[in-house]
Amino acid sequence: MQIQKLMVFNSYTFIAFFITILVLHNLPFSWKVKKVNLLLASYIFYAAWNPPFIFILWLSTVVDYFVGRALYTEENKHKKKLLLIISLMGNLGMLFFFKYGVFLLDNFVALVNLVGVDFYPAKPNIILPAGISFYTFTTLCYTIDMYKRKSKPVKSLLDFSLFVTFFPHLVAGPIVRPHQLVPQFESPRRATQQQLMEGLFLVSLGLFMKVVLADTLLASSADMVFDFPRPLLAVDAWLGVLAFSGQIFFDFAGYSTCAIGVALCLGFLLPENFRYPYAAIGFSDFWRRWHITLSTWLRDYLYIPLGGNRKGEVRTYANLLITMLLGGLWHGASWTFVAWGACHGIYLCVERFMKEKFLVKPEQLKKEVQMDVMAKALAPSFLTTKPVNNFLLAMFTFFLVNVTWVFFRASNFTTAWRILKSMFGQSVQGIAVLPTIDILKVAIVIPLMLVAHWFMRNTSVLDVARKVRWWSVALLWSFMIIALIISQKASDSFIYFQF
Amino acid sequence: MKANPLFKAFILTLTVVIGFMICLEWYWRSRGFKISYNDDKVFWSVQRKSVHKAGDQATVVIGSSRIKFDFDIPCWKALTGENAIQLALVGTSPRILLRDLSRDEKFKGKLIIDVAEFVLFPIDTGRWDKSARECLDYYYHETPAQKTGALINSFLESQLVLLEEGKFGLNALLNDLATPNRPRVFARPVFPKEFTESSFERQSRMTPMFLTDSSLQKRKLDTWTRSFNKKAAGIKGDTLEAVFKEIKMAIDKIRSRGGSVAFVRPPSNGEFLETENHLYPRQQYWDRLLDYTKTSGIHFLDYSALAKLTCPDWSHLAPQDAVTYTTQLVKILEQEVGWTFPNKVGPASRNANSKADGL
Fold this sequence. Notes:
The structure holds two protein chains of two kinds.
Chain A: H1 12-25, H2 31-47, H3 54-73, H4 77-114, H5 132-148, H6 157-165, H7 167-170, H8 178-186, H9 193-227, H10 234-265, H11 283-287, H12 292-303, H13 313-331, H14 335-359, H15 362-367, H16 372-376, H17 381-384, H18 387-409, H19 413-423, H20 436-456, H21 461-467, H22 470-487
Chain B: H1 5-30, H2 41-53, E1 59-62, H3 65-70, H4 73-80, E2 84-86, H5 95-103, E3 110-114, H6 117-120, H7 125-141, H8 144-157, H9 165-168, H10 170-175, E4 196-198, E5 204-206, H11 208-212, H12 214-227, H13 237-256, E6 260-265, H14 270-279, H15 283-293, E7 296-299, H16 304-307, H17 319-337, H18 346-356
Parallel strand pairs in B: 1-2, 1-3, 3-6, 6-7
Antiparallel strand pairs in B: 4-5
Helix pairs in contact in B: 2-7, 4-17, 4-18, 5-7, 5-13, 13-15, 17-18
């Protein structure tokens, strides 16, 4: 499967593109013209990767717009279900074909070979359309909402197209819901000076996270360790995994921060996607802080429809596991992603089990409803009042999260086991691979990241920027941009584009 | 009206950043650095595309850093009247590029393959192929966004010294700290940033700073000495046979379309040459390579004019010697290998020769 490079936020092309859009958006055109400009810009943004794939985006948009309206107005239950099935098959069918086609074929071939059938089909060369996992989830939630009549249909095809295609969130999220974005297209919007400044600050911060921290300082250590074909010294294995945990956070949170900043510069608000996840106390807390828009999507459109925690204990655990397994598979067509999801599912189940058995009274549990697992599964109360214990618990959570990242990053199980064995001192004759300079980078960046997450865990960067003196914001801002200029172009892709 | 605090912060940030960039640019220029392009996959891709534009007239050069310094493109153009496309990659085996050119049906021109034994016959192919794989991946999958970005980037790099990532990027600056590594940890050698500059056509040249500063030259030689491992062994037996076979297949394919191929072994001296001779004895590698592939080769030790050339860093020629080397190369290719250059212009050629000989 080929993954091609998009117009990334950290590129000269995007800077030129964004300045043009910003100017156009602030010229005295009618609101409709501005929306058309934004829509055309979004298509150009997407086409700058691979022009023909824009047709899939159009198809998805047009089908879901009309099916969505029909779902909302249709009274006949059978017809309604049929329409829903058409929409689900259309969206998920495309996702399965492009993202999971090769994976399914490989597994089928392995299975029939196992039972003695000689079947070796030609390997299809399928290009994964950029952002298909993200925009499929965006359109799916719309049609499901229409089916359930949770919200009203979008009034115009223009607004719906813009909702699906709006370039800041199109290729790597945040995954937006109709009620979060569509109302913003209904009346004229232009960023205030405050929003423009905050947007530019967020774009700078996001680029700093991506280019300086993820690509320049951490990527090489993670790559060296995960690409090394032999057993490693425990210290090297741990540093590589820690580097990856920093890299994946700064890469993805950096993209989300840029996306939110870019939208804000145009006057639009996108939902928060990361909230200092490495300060999480427990896994339910982690999933309230990591890729928030995906975890809430999975909660609302998978976990709850499966029955959530309303159908007894066993079903609750099963639902949790299914949700996390599919969440893992969403990240990529590979069993290693499923294993990653399974680890998180097991962690969530264990956490829930411990909470139920040891720390929470049954009558309190009964009060918890569907929102429980991902949004409401709180850490034990005595722990939330003791900062030291909380910090230790957060570090324990971080330790376990790191173990799961091994499956996420490793290209296969052989590599994953080799890294895990090295991490826990089970490898004989482990080899040192990391140059001292890379060790220093990880040893400085990761502790600073953890400290920052811990102290920021209950606030946001814009809140802090509003409270502190303006010149200290300027110093931080200057530092970030200077570091960006010095780092220059270290990479031309974001890790999450491949999902 | 009271100004928005974040707006004030923005204005101060802008002032600080612009001031910093001006100071940094002035600093690097005052140290003697000139405009030089970051020799990355983007510029490589630009050259790779011109293989097709040039049709049968192009001479393509593949190899590692040695030929990037020693093969002087302006001199070649003046002497032959033909374009030369530099596709060699620093510290990279040319085998993967040879394979790529052999599969490219449109390539029917002349091909010069630089033989630097350390990288042409490696045991650990992954390490020595990495840059080539990245370049090819970029070339074959370049998107419209990347094309636009490359245009903006090449313009900016032609204006600002500080944008050369390989020398002035954060990682390059951190590598300058030269922190000692644990035993047996592999790290690519870090050379003084004054060592080289690169043109848009990917011509590498030693800078006047490097050529006039013996301490910089010593630093470079020390880096080589530290990275030599005389206990290592070159590939042998079936593995070596497989490499020869792979190279021959690719060359035969190019020849079958009307293309021409020649190997060159540019000069190296001192401890570098000793290590190469020790690990890759000429009879077992160079001679067998020519014999197996039935291809002409120009070894610097076989020509007195080339053998007397001295590399300031044991491995690459100074710009003036690169002109001499290229001049001799053209002569040998014409007289001994039988290459012809239909667009060759007499007087221009004589002028270039005069320049090349330093007259």
